[in-house]
Automatic annotation (TrEMBL):
An example Gene Ontology molecular-function term: transmembrane signaling receptor activity
GO cellular component: external side of plasma membrane
Keyword Secreted recorded: no
Annotated source species: Haplochromis burtoni
GO biological process terms held by the UniProt record: apoptotic process; defense response to Gram-negative bacterium; defense response to Gram-positive bacterium; immune response; negative regulation of alpha-beta T cell proliferation; positive regulation of cytokine production involved in immune response; positive regulation of T cell migration; signal transduction
Cysteine disulfide partners in this protein: C30-C45
Protein name: TNFR-Cys domain-containing protein
InterPro entries: Fas_rcpt, TNFR/NGFR_Cys_rich_reg
Keyword Membrane: yes
Keywords: Disulfide bond, Membrane, Transmembrane, Transmembrane helix
A Pfam short name: TNFR_c6
């Protein structure tokens, strides 16, 4: 009434009764499941955030009268919406790499899986790792294989012989 504001309530409390000319602000503690993290002149505490297990979150830190719940990310998920570098409010499942790809970097709680195409000559059925094609030695490719083994050998022999004979 005299142009001065009522004193604020501390963290963990809200206003039960405004001050009067004769008395200060009356404050009350936040009920279970609610919190107040700043000095305030409010009448209601904030409801605590709940961490939704069905959406890849778990309680990292329980709600107190002065701090909200902190949620973190379950295995197999990564955070899409980080709060304060600590908590998370939204997650997504790690991607699976497609056939023909490998996992270049596994997903973490902060980042999705990084996939990479297999190099030529490699294959991947499961999208996990790439395996080299096997060279088929049975079905008529023996001659070309021998060619690749014997040609360098032949060249070496010629080189060696010419070296020795001057
Ligand atoms: C949170 O509180 C619940 C119930 O009181 C308890 O079971 C759980 O262990 C607590 N979690 C943490 C992270 O403190």
């Amino acid at each position: 009434n005299d142009g001065q504001c009522c004193p604020m309530c501390n963290e963990g409390r809200v206003v039960q009764k405004d001050c009067t000319v004769y008395s200060g602000t009356q404050c009350r503690f936040c009920d279970l499941g609610t919190f107040m993290n700043q000095p305030n002149g409010l009448y209601n505490c904030f409801p605590c955030t709940s961490c939704d297990t069905g959406h890849g979150l778990f309680v990292k830190q329980n709600c107190t009268a002065t701090t909200d719940t902190v949620c973190d990310v379950l295995n197999g998920y990564y955070c899409k919406d980080l709060i304060d570098s600590n908590g998370c409010s939204l997650t997504e499942k790690h991607s699976h790499c497609a056939a023909g790809q490998r996992i270049k970097e596994p997903g973490t709680s902060r980042s999705d899986t990084v996939c990479e195409d297999c190099q030529p000559g490699f294959f991947s059925k499961d999208g996990v790792s790439c395996t080299a094609w096997k060279v088929d030695v049975v079905c008529g490719r023996t001659s070309s294989q021998h060619y690749f083994v014997f040609l360098p050998f032949l060249l070496c022999s010629v080189a060696f012989t010419s070296l020795v004979t001057g």
